[in-house]
Amino acid sequence: FHQRSEVEQQLSAANSALVNAGYQILRHPLERVKYLLSLHGIEVLAETAGTISDPALLMEVMEIRDEISTCTSGALLEEMSEASAARLEALMGDLERHYAAGDLTAIGNSAVKLQYFTKIEEEIELRMEVVGDG
After folding, report:
1. What whole-number distance in Å separates Cα of residue 82 and Cα of residue 79?
2. Residue 132 Ramachandran class (φ > 0 left, ψ -120 to 50 alpha, else beta)
3. CA distances from 115 to 8, 20, 56, 121, 123 (A)
4. I need a labelling partner for 2 at 20 to 30 A (CA). Which of 22, 45, 49, 71 fits?
């Protein structure tokens, strides 16, 4: 690597950065969805666009977040984490079906749900660190 020209080193570094970025996209389901949607010109998960318009879903997310923030039982948080993982898996299945059908509107709606439930999973993990096995 050190014996290569400056231009070759810069190209190698740029290609390495692209490979790393691609790996990060493939590694995280939400990032994969964002990427696939961006290929179709859809930015539904941009900071201002990824909001919940379904009142029932909004209420469900708010209730879950409240449960997480007040939970003091590691066992209960573990149950919540398992339920969350099942919900994420179901959402990924929905996304796969919508993508196979070419239903970009349904993909966008499911992607917003995935975004919120991914955040819930992260909040559960953070709360588990605080609560411990209590």
Report:
1. 5
2. left
3. 39, 22, 16, 10, 13
4. 22
Residue 95 CB partners (closer than 8 Å, separation 6+): 33, 107, 110, 111, 114
Predicted confidence pLDDT, tens digits, the chain (134 residues):
567 788 888 888 887 877 877 767 667 777 887 887 788 787 766 654 556 678 898 899 999 999 999 999 999 999 999 999 999 999 999 999 998 998 988 888 888 889 899 999 999 999 999 997 65
61: which 2 tokens? 């997310």
Q: Which of 104, 88, 117, 116 is nearest to 39 (CA)?
A: 104
pTM: 0.73
DSSP state, 49?
A: T
Cβ atoms of 117 and 84 closer than 8 Å: yes
